[in-house]
What does this fold into?
Amino acid sequence: MSPSVLVTGAGGGIGLAITERMSGRGWDVYATARSADALHSLERIPNVHAIPLDITDRSAIAGLADRLPAALNGVVNNAGIIVNGPVEGLSLDDLSRQLDVNVAQIGVTQAVLPKIREGRGRVVFMSSVSGLITVPGTGAYSASKYAVESLADALRIELRPWRIPVSLIEPGPTRTDMWGDMLDEYDRMAAGLSEEHRESYAAHLAGNRKLLARMQRYVGDPKKVVKAVDHALTAKHPKRRYLCDNLSRVQKAVVSITPTAVNDAVLSAATTSTKATSR
It folds into this structure.
């Protein structure tokens, strides 16, 4: 019997690439997506079973197990969104949406753990280097990823009696549709701020936008992220954490040894435009 894995957020980007990789390895992939077009495309991939799922829909999560085989060899919690903006300008609805979507990975894991136990499988969470390092303008997104990091750390220890490995994938900026559209999304966020917040944070908004534009030129290879997920699912000794690019490794190392005051000053300088004025 072929091994099986559930992949959430498989309609595009890294989730689709993971689905194609594991399908190509002969795994039965149960791939979730929200749009009808994405589901139709997934069904055309060999060994893939498309499942409609909005991971914020608790009733859908409760019924997820009924769409899956009796045993699973893995679950890849990939679905997620990015909400940008200064903390003061975030609406509570946007903050709740950020946490609801990204932290809902835990709900999926809870729903399928009996099948993971049955299949002696593994749990993989798509986190981010933003779950280790927070920069101005990414407070909501980083909060969601810090939450995933913490919950996964607890789960990894709690599941030791069943020898179920739990791995965190921690990519930096990666070449996907999400990052390709990042500047447009950022502009929409800025336009949605109140006039007072746009004026007060003008220097930060301009600086962050400039930094994002530079980062788009140096985004990482999604193949490295897919390779890390493959290793987490198939290696005899999967890692607990996977940093997927050298820039992220350097960032983590530098932040861990540099005083917080210095880190604050560097991040402030990197994300503040001297050509914009704030009130």
